Amino acid sequence: MNFRLLFFITLFVLIVGCANKIEDGSVLTERTEASDFVLEISTPTVAKVGQMLKVKGKLTYVGDKPIELYHGEPIIRFSFTGTDIDYAYTDGGYRTQVKKGQTFEVGSEFKVTEFGKQSLIARTTLIEVDGKVIKGIGNEKYIKNDMSESNKELEDSKITLAPIVIEVNSK
Can the peptide bond before residue 163 be classed as cis, meaning omega within 30 degrees of 0? Predict the structure, then answer.
C-alpha cells in the first residue's frame, strides 16, 4: 500500500517538474508562453553530420476573444548553429484573423554540417494584436542599447525559446 502511494507521488512530481520539457526518445519538445500565445518546438536532440535535421514549431493563440494578428512569414523562425544554411524571412506585412485555439504550424530543415554541441534557436516574428505589440519573452540578448525605442519594442514583441542543444555526431 505505501509503495503504491510513494510511486504515484513520485510519478506526479516527475510529470509536474517536466511540464515544459517533454523528451520522447531523442525528440525533445520545449514550450513557453507569453501574452495569449503558446510556442511549442519539437526537435531531435541527436543528429549526425550529413543528416537533415527536421524541426517543427507550433504557435497557438489561447486568448478568449477573436483578434487581428499582424506578423511576418513564417511566423516562427529557426536558426541552427550546425549548418551553413541561412534563410531569408519577411518580418511583417501579414494580417490574420485569429480565433481562440487557432494554431500556426511551421517546419524547417537544416543540413547538418558541424559536429559537437550545436544550438537550435526558435523565435516568432514580431507579434502585434489588434494594433498593439505584445510583451514577448526571452528577447533580452537581442535588444541592444543603441537600438531606437521603437525597434526595442518590436524586438521585445517576439516569443523566443532558450536555445535547444543538439548533440551532433560525426558520420
Answer: no
